[in-house]
Write a structure and sequence with these properties.
Strand content of chain B: 15-25%
InterPro entries (chain B): Mopterin_OxRdtase_4Fe-4S_dom (IPR006963)
Largest interface: A-B, 166 and 118 residues
Cofactor (chain B): [4Fe-4S] cluster
CATH class of the largest domain in chain B: Mainly Beta
GO molecular function (chain B): 4 iron, 4 sulfur cluster binding; electron transfer activity; molybdenum ion binding; oxidoreductase activity
Largest sheet of chain A: 6 strands, mixed
Oligomer: heterodimer
Keywords (chain B): 4Fe-4S, Iron, Iron-sulfur, Metal-binding, Oxidoreductase
Protein name (chain B): Dehydrogenase
Order of helices and strands of chain B: HHHEEEHHEEHEEHE
Shape of chain B: elongated
Strand order of the largest sheet of chain B: 1-2-3
Number of helices of chain B: 7
Number of strands of chain A: 35
Number of domains of chain B: 3
Structural class of chain B: alpha+beta
Chain lengths: 934, 188
């Protein structure tokens, strides 16, 4: 980031949440870069920027789409770059219909399932006359049709692109054909104008011009612009598309793969990147291989083909090798060519099994046991009330943490105990609190936000009963295997055949280096048997090599823990290749082939990074080339060979099946090939662009504890007239488990507050530093009012929009140093269909002066407002509002205003509507999601 | 208490030490002069990484007699250049907080208080419950007879704060057991 000429921070308060990383923004500023912060609030980041542009939360696609329109309409894009490296010239199927044609929907929408058939989004027939793509929709052997995104599969393409059969779509290099991506893009964003930005985001023309000019004048051969975002983009319904919009813009401006370019994802936990790469996530296996889905991956070949076909371009063509190496690492000698390397040992998904689907299953008594490994969902997840109620349905839980977090104590204290809704004596959940070792008490690696794997040395022994997760999991595995050792049940074979023989030290602790060595991989046979692999390109698909996470291969090259390297920064260049190790291949800037032009020459001397050395016949420069090292820029690629050999010399995007950066995504996303503006679920502003009000693919859960505000529907929009966003402060960390127990940090930020503008304070009669009560359709909380001009009321669609800021680190309890109400109790569960991540950034509420009621009266207040607003289970959950797609008549819904029938109405089923096998229709014709089966 | 000496009078020390303004060494007490930074007294320094956000700042963990005494930023780190934010700088309290719980605590079904439990017993009880939940909610096939080979009786949440090696073992063990409901903060 220090090399950027302009940095646009949007969806992040980097100075507050990533303060030490922010030094590189300040470094860029000191070198002359322009810094712009787009955010609803004026924050510490804004204070350090040249300009703060206040915006309405959830409208990012309008702003970024208008920038796309601006650069396309005025020919301000980087023409040589987009022609060389993007799919601008690719021709899309003539069956494709845009949101401009269909009132806000793309072609292929099925209102019955609430999902898209993506066939019509594909590239036009390839040169061989074959259909290209069609990868994200699968037809099972029995003819069942299944869209991968519903198992969260789009995330499996996080390290690259989804497959295309061949990387040879038809192209029109003049970009004039109306079906080219370029022309589709132009039409799609033609109504995203500066006026629309003013009308929708509340951003003035002058501010828009400043932003557009900053971007344009700091892009091109000589200059680069960098974007940075955090959960201000991801935690939205449609969040994946917010990021996509920035990606399109950066590709158009030539800001990918070059120094000071790109999009910086600022992640919030020490190894949240590592836990995605080596995923404790339901839909992934290590290295972004998908979990197996029934009907989609019925045999090993179908599975690996769905990841990448061997005949396609780029490195996903070797997907079979990556999968075989993983299976070999896990099941050793039991994984053979004859049994498809024990592919059948992998369990199958048949729909999403994300944390919110699991919660619904808990409420339905479908889950017995729950492990919490350093996470506090009672405070940190959306709809904290439902989280706690869900835990009361468990038979047992294991809480591994440093202190008595609220997810361990909810049965004894908390809002539901206060209200009498739960009684301690009635709760049957058995709880094991196991003390955990902290980061100084064990050795191991974290992967930080730029994919850098950094090893920590152990400083001291853990105290008392405290154990590392490594020790706990190894021990649990040993006990389970011991208890099953005489089993003849085939279901136990995967556990008994598991490679689980890690070396231990004298105190019985597993050597973590042995685990990272397994992740790295080794030769299983041949002259080098037993030696570590140095690169994933050495992986074979015949079982002669193994490796637990292909993208990490090289971290243990030569038997040396490369992640533990600590050569001081003062003794190496700015890439610091000898400080730790970055996946893949210790490469620090991804797609860096694009830092040189089509001929392999740097775009400019000033922005030089990698180039083709015609004498040495190799790619040269200070970073590790992200390209076959000896592939000439004019190499046409051997398309018959498939894989890396098929890449042409300018196919800089080596993980994409066509080698190009995707302005338009023919596969991989479930809610559209191009980002489109939809209003947030509870928004009271009509979508100014389309009759389709909100994202039609969103995942929702109809439940009496998860009601939505009416938004634009209904007649009582005045009950929840404001919106709030949640955020972090520097002195605390997420749900507070690692900060509210520390005296220093608790003293610095002792209590929950809400930020409101002086105008809003006056409107509702709140005094500065007085108490305020915030009420959403889910819960009521109290906070100290911080009345500040940092909050700007915006005029949007002729209405004044007041936004409220709420940090979410506190919770009710007696164990931490400080306590307070839990903000996530206010938030409902509405998820992005691509990522299954909830919206936390735009939630409807009202705010009143004074403290909230105590005890039972607290929830009564919430229910009183629900009745005033006329909320029903389906309020705000109307999926399709585009008139050409009538959703059917709405049957009588449950009327919350008739007191005595409420309980009866909700009694069956007890808590929620359990969805059918895959997303389907409920009685009233609305899309629902629930567990996988009844 | 050292013997009184006129040479230790502040004004004498001020002249003697050249501390003209009397705001430096002349006014430091013996008590202050005897103090040393904890980093000097440490008998071991471990290279570590901050456990909070994903910037990955370098930490130096100083310890003495097997106890962490101080945590400082690592000036060698090309990421953080020695800096830490308030959380990273406070992380010594994460280790030594008096509110930290270091023994197993157990709440029996319908119990009203925490109880003590031996670690070994707890681990064995958990393994039994794991197998029982796995069995009770086992799904061999779906309603169309297609293989699922999984259990929905067990779920886990967490991973973004623990190590890569720990995530790896968790995913490996749970997947082999058929427990597919694994999630972490990356979903939130």
């Amino acid at each position: 980031m220090a090399n950027a000429d302009c940095i646009i921070i949007q969806g992040s308060n980097m100075a507050e949440a990533h303060p030490v990383g922010f030094q590189w923004v300040m470094e860029a500023k000191a070198r002359g870069a322009r810094i712009i912060h787009v955010d609803p609030r004026f924050t510490r980041t804004s204070a350090n920027a040249h300009k703060h542009i206040p915006t309405r939360a959830g409208t990012d696609v309008v702003l970024l789409g208008a920038l796309i329109n601006h650069v396309l309409s005025n020919d301000l894009y980087f023409e040589d770059y987009i022609k060389a490296f993007t799919n601008a010239s690719s021709i899309v199927s003539s069956d494709f219909q845009d949101t401009e044609d269909l009132e806000g929907l793309f072609s292929g929408f099925d209102p019955e399932t609430g999902s898209y058939d993506t066939d019509s989004w594909q590239y036009s027939a390839s040169q061989e006359g074959e259909r290209v793509g069609d990868a994200s929709t699968f037809t099972g052997r029995d003819g069942s049709h299944y869209t991968s995104g519903h198992a969260g599969a789009s995330e499996a393409f996080g390290a690259g692109g989804p497959p295309l059969e061949h990387g040879l779509p038809e192209r029109d290099e003049t970009l004039q054909d109306p079906h080219t991506v370029f022309q589709i893009l132009k039409r799609h964003y033609s109504r995203y104008t500066p006026e629309m930005v003013t009308e929708t985001c509340g951003i003035s023309r002058a501010d828009f011009d400043y932003l557009a000019d900053s971007l344009v004048s700091n892009s091109g051969r000589e200059r680069t612009t960098c974007f940075a975002y955090a959960v201000g983009w991801t935690q939205h319904v449609g969040g994946a598309q917010f990021i996509r919009t920035a990606a399109i813009l950066q590709l158009l401006m030539g800001n990918v793969g070059r120094p000071g370019s790109g999009i910086m994802a600022l992640r919030g936990h020490a190894t949240i990147q590592g836990s995605t790469d080596i995923p404790t996530l339901f839909n992934l296996l290590p290295g972004y291989l998908p979990m197996v889905s029934v009907g989609e991956h019925d045999d090993f070949a179908a599975y690996t083909d769905s990841i990448g076909r061997s005949e396609q371009k780029g490195y996903w063509a070797n997907s079979r090798a990556y999968a075989v190496n993983l299976l070999k690492a896990w099941w050793g000698d039991a994984a053979t060519a004859e049994n498809d390397f024990a592919f059948d040992y992998l369990p199958r998904l048949n729909g999403p099994a994300g944390t919110y689907q699991t919660l619904m299953r808990m409420l339905d008594d479908g889950v017995d046991g729950y492990f919490l490994l350093g996470q506090n969902p009672a405070v940190g997840s959306a709809n904290g009330r439902m989280q706690r109620l869900g835990m009361s349905h468990l038979k047992w839980m294991v809480v591994r943490d440093f202190s008595m977090i609220e997810s361990a104590t909810w049965w004894k204290e908390g809002p539901e105990i206060d209200s009498g809704e739960l009684r301690t004596e009635d709760i049957g959940t058995e709880i094991f609190f196991l003390p955990a070792a902290n980061h100084t008490e064990k050795a191991g690696s974290f992967t930080q936000t730029q994919r850098l794997v950094q090893w920590r040395e152990k400083a001291v022994e853990p105290p008392g009963d405290a154990q590392s997760e490594l020790e706990f999991l190894f021990d649990l595995g040993n006990r389970i295997r011991e208890k099953l050792k005489d089993s003849t049940d085939p279901r136990d074979r995967p556990l008994l055949d598991l490679t689980w023989d890690y070396p231990v030290d004298e105190s019985g602790e597993v050597d973590p280096e042995a685990v990272i060595a397994e992740i790295n991989g080794r030769f299983e046979s041949g002259p080098d048997a037993g030696k570590p692999l140095t690169s994933y390109t050495q992986m074979t698909d015949d079982g002669s090599t193994s490796g637990g996470c292909w993208i990490y291969t090289g971290v243990y090259a030569d038997g040396i823990n490369q992640a533990a390297r600590k050569k001081p920064r003062t003794e190496q260049d700015e890439f610091a290749h000898e400080w730790a190790w970055a996946w893949p291949a210790n490469r620090r800037i991804l797609y860096n082939r694009a830092s040189a032009d089509a001929d392999g020459k740097p775009w400019s001397e000033r922005k030089k990074l990698m180039w083709w050395d015609d004498e040495q016949k190799c790619w040269s420069g200070p970073d590790v080339p992200d390209f076959p090292a000896d592939k000439d820029p004019h190499d046409p690629g051997d398309t018959d060979a498939g894989g890396p050999a098929a890449l042409a010399g300018n196919d800089a995007f080596i993980m994409q099946a066509d080698g190009r950066g995707w302005l338009y995504a023919p596969t991989g996303l479930v809610d559209g090939p191009l980002p489109t503006h939809y209003e947030p679920v509870e928004s009271a502003i009509p979508n100014p662009l389309y009759p389709q009000q909100s994202n039609p693919t969103r995942v929702s859960f109809q439940d009496r504890h998860n009601l939505n505000a009416p938004g634009t529907s209904g007649t009582h929009q005045d009950v929840y007239p404001y919106v709030f966003s949640t955020y972090r402060v520097t002195e605390h960390h997420t749900a507070g488990g690692m900060s509210r127990w520390l005296p220093y940090l608790s003293e610095l930020q002792p209590e929950l507050f809400c930020e409101i503008s002086p105008e809003l304070a006056e409107e509702v009669g709140i005094e500065p530093y007085g108490w305020a009560t915030v009420i959403s359709p889910r819960a009521a909380i109290e906070a100290i009012a911080l009345v500040t001009e940092r909050m700007t009321p915006l005029t949007v669609a002729g209405q004044t929009v007041h936004q409220i800021g709420l940090p979410y680190h506190w919770a009710q309890g007696t164990h931490a140093v400080v306590d307070g109400d839990s903000v996530n109790d206010l938030i409902g569960m509405n998820l992005d269909a691509n990522t299954q991540i909830q919206n936390s950034k735009v939630t409807a509420c009202t705010i009143r002066p004074g403290r909230r009621p105590r005890g039972k009266a607290r929830q009564e207040l919430v229910e009183q407002l629900q009745r005033e607003a006329g909320l029903t289970l389906s309020t705000g959950d109307t999926r399709v509002t585009a008139p050409d797609f009538p959703e059917g008549t709405h049957p009588e819904d449950i009327d919350l205003s008739t007191g005595e029938t409420i309980e009866e109405s909700f009694d069956l089923p007890a808590h929620h509507r359990q969805g059918p096998q895959s997303p389907g229709l409920s009685e009233d014709g609305k899309h629902e999601q629930g567990g996988e089966e009844d | 208490m050292p013997r009184f000496s006129f040479l230790e009078w502040p004004v004498v020390r001020q002249l003697r030490d050249g501390d003209i303004l009397g705001r430096g060494t002349a006014v430091t007490s013996q008590h202050t002069r005897d103090k040393k930074p904890r980093t000097v007294e440490a008998d071991h320094v471990a290279h570590s990484v901050c456990p909070y956000c994903a910037v990955g700042c370098g930490q130096l963990v100083y310890s003495k007699d097997g106890k962490v005494t101080q945590i400082e930023g690592d000036p060698d780190s090309p990421i953080s250049r020695g800096r830490l934010c308030p959380k990273g700088a406070a992380s010594e309290q994460l280790v030594n907080s008096p509110r930290r719980v270091t023994t197993v605590r157990y709440r029996r079904p319908h119990g009203t208080e925490w109880e003590d439990l031996d670690l070994e017993t707890a681990l064995d009880m958990i393994a039994d419950r794991f197998l029982e939940a796995r069995r009770r909610h086992w799904e061999e096939t779906d309603e169309k007879g297609r293989t699922l080979r999984r259990t929905m009786g067990i779920a886990s949440l967490g991973g973004a704060t623990i190590d890569n090696e720990e995530n790896y073992l968790a995913k490996k063990l749970f997947t082999a057991a058929g427990a597919v409901q694994m999630e972490n903060q990356a979903r939130i």
